[in-house]
Amino acid sequence: MENMYLGIDIGSVSINVIAIDEENEIIFKSYCRNSGEPVEIVKSVLEELQEKIKNKYKVNGVGVTGSGRQLIGYILGADVVKNEITAHATATIHYQPDVSTIFEIGGQDSKLIIVRDGIVTDFAMNTVCAAGTGSFLDHQAQRLGIEIEEFGKLALKAEKDVRIAGRCTVFAESDMISKQQYGFTKAEIIKGLSEALVRNYFNNLVRGKKIKPVYVFQGGVAANAGIKAALEKEVDDEVIIPGDYNVMGAIGIAMIARNHIHKNRIETNFKGFTVTKDSFNTDSFTCNGCPNMCEVIKVKANGKTIAMTGDRCNKWSNSVQNDDKMLGNTGA
Ligand code: SF4
Which is the closest atom of ligand 1 to the Cα of 296? Predict the structure, then answer.
C-alpha cells in the first residue's frame, strides 16, 4: 500500500479534510460546513475517505489545525497539531514559492501573513471584528436579497464607484440604505461593500505592516470576484488565487505531518479508521485548585476519559494515561 498523509482544518465555519501522497499530490479533498458537531463530521468524512481509498493507501501521518484542533488532534492521535498561520503559509509557499504577502479571508476570521524568502516573518489575525470577514458580506447579501454566490460577479458590473461607510456592520447597513435611496444600483452598492470589507481588512490587519508583491489571496472569500478586484485596486497589483484556495490550511498541515514523520523517522500515532466507530463526548468543569479557576475540558471515548485540556498547570492533562506521548507531539 502507498503512504498518505491526512490534513484536517477544524474552523468555526468549515471543516476541511485533505489527503496527500508522498509527492504532495492531493488524493482526497473534502470541504464541509461546520454545523457545530466537528467530531461527527470528521468521523463521517473519514468513513468516506476509507471507502474511497480502499486498500490502496495507508495513513502514514496526521496533522490537525484550526480553532478546534486540540480536540480532534487528541481523538485521532495526530502527529502534529499546529496553528493556522503555519499551516496556511506552508501550503502557499509550496504552490507559490515567491509569495511575499498572503491575504486569508474566511467566513468568521481573517489573517495576514508576511513571508520573506519562504519564511513567515510576521502575521496578524482578526477573530473579533466581523466587518473584515466573509460574514460581513453574507449579512449584506441577505439584506439585499442576493445569493452570496452572485455577489462577487455583480460587483464587477458596477459602472460607478460609491463609497460605503463600512467600519462596522451597523454603519454599513444604514449607509447602504441611504445610497440606495440616492439611486445607486445594487451592483454599485455591492462594489462599495466589497471595497469597504477590504478597507476594514487593511485597517485591522495590515496597518503599518510593509506588504509587497507577490500577493496571494486564499480562504473561502477568495471565491468572490468582487473582493479580489477590490484587493487588486487597494494594492494596485495582481492578486493570485490558488486552485485550492478554500482548503489551504488542511493542505499545509498535511504537508507538515509528512515532513514531521520523515524528518524524525517515526511512525504515526494515528489511531486508525476504527475511531469512526467510537463514541466520543466532551464535558467541562471549573477547577477550583487555585485562583485561575480554569475551565477544564474532558474528552471521553466509549465512556473512558482519553484527554483533558484547558488546565494552565497541566494538573489534569497529565493525569490522563498516555496523554504525555500525544502532548509531546503537539505544537502551538
Ligand atoms: S487547573 Fe491548575 S492552574 Fe487551573 S485552576 Fe486548577 S490548579 Fe489552578
Answer: 1
Q: Could you say which of 3.50.50.60, 3.30.420.40, 1.20.1600.10, 3.30.870.10 is the CATH number of the domain covering 2-86+249-277+320-327?
A: 3.30.420.40
Cis status of the peptide bond prior to 120, with omega within 30 of 0: no
- Give the closest residue (by CA) to ligand 1 atom 2: 313
What is the pLDDT, as a whole number, of residue 46?
A: 95
The domain over range 97-241 is classified in CATH as 3.30.420.40: yes
For the Cβ of 301 lying below 6 angstroms from any atom of ligand 1, the answer is no
According to DSSP, the β-strands at 80-81 and 280-286 are unpaired
How confident is the model over 197-213, as pLDDT tens digits? 898 889 889 988 999 99
Among 313, 316, 317, 320, say which to mutate for ligand 1: greatest number of ligand atoms within 8 Å of CB.
313
Name the stretches of the chain with pLDDT < 70. 127-132, 166-169, 321-332
pLDDT at position 60 is 97
- Taking the C-alpha atoms of residue 48 and residue 62, their distance in angstroms, rounded to an integer, is 17
pTM (predicted TM-score): 0.83
The DSSP code sequence of 173-227 is HHHHHHHHHTT--HHHHHHHHHHHHHHHHIIIIITT----SSEEEESGGGG-HHH
Radius of gyration of the chain (CA): 22
268 and 61 in contact (C-beta within 8 Å)?
Answer: yes
Domain residue extents for the chain = 2-86+249-277+320-327, 97-241
Cα distance between residue 321 and residue 307, in whole Å: 8
Read off the C-alpha cell for 135. Answer: 460574514
Do 257 and 60 touch, CB atoms closer than 8 A? no
Q: Give SS3 for 138.
A: helix
